[in-house]
Design brief:
The protein is mostly beta strands. It has one domain: Beta Barrel (Porin). 10% of the residues lie in helices and 55% in strands. An eight-stranded antiparallel β-barrel has the order 1-2-3-4-5-7-8-9. The two termini are 31 Å apart.
């Protein structure tokens, strides 16, 4: 799976670079990062608090025309949700929250449309590869992490999403962005106690980027 993943990335970046050169356009390589506010949603999911984490990665913007670009990305994305524990009075005790951490390598394939100079809207599919899964009983502190082995996990290793966003790119290559991604498939494996549970990843991302 890992070899196929990296081979796919090489093919994507190689193909888009060749196309950009053949069309006499300039592809821009860049780095990006920001904050994630993530949870899971669905008909079978109650109210969960969001987990605050981060995203960090690389992208390549391929101009197709003056107003339209294709932008493949590779991002590390910290996702999951927070469970608010309850005290003896059945009230939420925010000092003892537990984080369920689902961390992915995400591959968004974004179509960008520049509405006016600098201001753009974007949309596209996103494919996620789970790299780790943990329960953190002491968020924000050292220790408290329980790693869940892939053989014992109820969560699938692959996830598909749709991403929508907007941003502003300055002339110097610096950009500000906001994006929402929503799962298209349930995160839980078949043949487990959660196989019929409607549960999908839901993530808000706010960040910065710089193009070289």
């Amino acid at each position: 799976m890992k070899n196929l993943f990296f081979a796919t990335l090489v093919t994507i970046f190689g193909f888009t670079t060749i196309n950009a050169q053949s069309d006499d356009t300039t592809a821009q390589f860049g780095v990006k990062g920001g904050v994630n506010f993530s949870t899971i949603t669905g008909d079978d999911i109650g109210d969960l608090d969001s987990r605050t984490s981060f995203n960090l990665g690389l992208f390549m913007e391929i101009p197709i025309s003056e107003r339209f670009s294709f932008q493949p990305e590779v991002l590390y994305s910290g996702q999951g949700f927070t469970i608010a524990t309850r005290d003896q009075d059945n009230a939420f005790d925010t000092d003892d929250n537990v984080e369920y951490q689902l961390n992915y390598i995400q591959v968004p394939l974004m179509a960008k449309v520049y509405l006016v100079k600098g201001l753009y809207a974007e949309a596209g599919p996103q494919f996620g590869f789970k790299v780790s899964e943990e329960i953190d009983y002491s968020p924000g502190e050292g220790g408290g992490d329980t790693v869940i082995d892939s053989d014992d996990s109820h969560v699938k290793g692959f996830d598909t999403n749709v991403a929508l966003g907007a941003g502003y790119k300055f002339d110097n290559g610096f950009a500000l962005s906001a994006r929402y991604t929503h799962g298209l498939t349930n995160i839980y494996k078949d043949n487990t106690m959660f196989e019929n549970t409607d549960a999908k990843n839901s993530v808000w991302q706010f960040g910065v980027a710089f193009s070289f």
